[in-house]
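Much of what follows relies on a compact textual record of a protein's fold. The record below shows the convention in full:
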Amino acid sequence: MNFSRYSLFALATFSAVAATINQEPLGPLKERPNIVFILTDDQDVELGSLDYMPLLHKHLINEGTLFSRHYCTTAICCPSRVTLWTGKNAHNTNVTDIFPPYGGYPKFVHEGHNENYLPVWLQAGGYNTFYTSKLFNTHTTDNYNSPYPAGWTGSDFLLDPFTYQYLNATTQRNREPPVSWEGHYTTDVIAEKAYGFIDDAVALGGPFFLTVATVTPHSNVAAFEIDLDDPLNSPLESIVGVVTPPIPAERHKHLFPEVKIPRTENFNPDKPSGASWIKALPQLNSAIITYNDAFYRARLQALQAVDELIEGVVSLLSEHGILDNTYIIYSTDNGYHISQHRLHPGKECGFEEDIHIPLIIRGPGIAAGQTSYLVSAHADLSPTILSLAGLAPRPDFDGSAIPLTSSSVLSAEESGERGEHVNIEFWGLGLPEGKYGFSLDDGKIVGFGVNNTYKALRIINSAKGYNLYYAVWCTNEHELYNLTADPGQLRNLYPGSESSSFKVVERHEAELYRLVQRLDALLLTTKSCKGVTCRKPWSVLHPKGDRYDAFYADVAGTTSVRFDKCLLGYIKEAEGPQSLEFDFEEWAAFGGRGEL
């Protein structure tokens, strides 16, 4: 393999963002555009990882638009990726975990998505489609051909159990048998495959869609056997060392020697925070903090190879003369926490570190050096890509195309037509990573994870002053945070919670209850929504646009979000009420109380 085709940089410093430049939308394209999607794995926004990627800034942020309020809807990779490629929330894909029986590639196939997801639609619309690197978890050396993933003109997938091994990858190209890349650095292997697919796409002619899905900066995961039917009781001879920090390329291991995790207010706080199992976490000791700082540096070092990949892709597109007719999208599957709320390295939580993720898009008609403050989510990306390809949205999408040009963004901001909410949901276990996250007792995993099932809403509306997170756990504990005043999500405002600052102020207490009534009704609508109900949940609650205080006062206490039990997957019977058991029209006809 020749890694010299594109220059590799040992990056010890990083450039500042260029001054904002307004780019006018281009005229009609002579050809349908190409689309390149670069997808990382477990990349944070809140901990500043983008600040350490100068080539990302140079080629994408400075030349495109940063969507600063983009969220995943499920903070773990496989469910998040299925949402991304189907345009549907996890409660509608029914892929809610990384392993069977509730998730992974076998579940994706079982639910019928292999015949009905983005590459299939793009191929039907006249696009050649290519994919390299990780597709889904539990896509393995045993099941890669049963069936083959549909919809790809060319593919070269990473396969489990070697997916997360930075120096021992196994890939499988098209219909060929798997090939081992032991001793080669995985991100560089993937970069070369991506460059090859661009060459192939140009040779074929016509528009193309290419996904380059690096596993960086995911933890390095050594191969191990696990009982997919009973992961809690899987015997592991040595869990310590199975999930370790990512491995940087040799050329990057010296970088950022003094960098530490940002010491924000929620970094290993003196007082416990959160709900359920999180509020019982002990404070991390100095040895763990030192380990976590090194873990954080390894993530930044590993991302340097992705930064170089970005420049390689842009350079090759330019060499072929197609850069000006290509959209490049950059994102990740979910975010990441390290020491916030006393948490060991990992994801799966509803905190901002885990759900707030990068989205950057450059291409024809997209303003350069701009930042968009519209709220968007992963369910919006398939609709957006179909829109870029000139194809119609599907009626069952839970998301909608993101406005991309300066004029469409401005129109959406002024009209308020763009949604202000993101539906957040999770089922299953909270899994700590790193050597301090696990221990063994008689050969069994201890601390493998506790039930982490919850439903939540993230609502941001600057014009109305909303910046809220509201969650209901399967334990029926509640969380409510005002992120304007409490960006670290340390002070739970839900009535009766230990940290509620409203308890002693009667007027504020009344205001808080009115807020909770609305949030609960909205969450009850989104927790099981489909299609337009997910996109416009307020239209379900108020089909005529009216919003009555008395309506919520009457609804509160009759039907609210709750769980009947904590399970490891999406079982509707355990999820409590599925919608408001309240007839607004009947209520109004019989003298419903209140004015607007």
Q: What stands out?
A: Residues 34-224+246-420 form a domain with the Alkaline Phosphatase, subunit A fold (CATH 3.40.720.10).
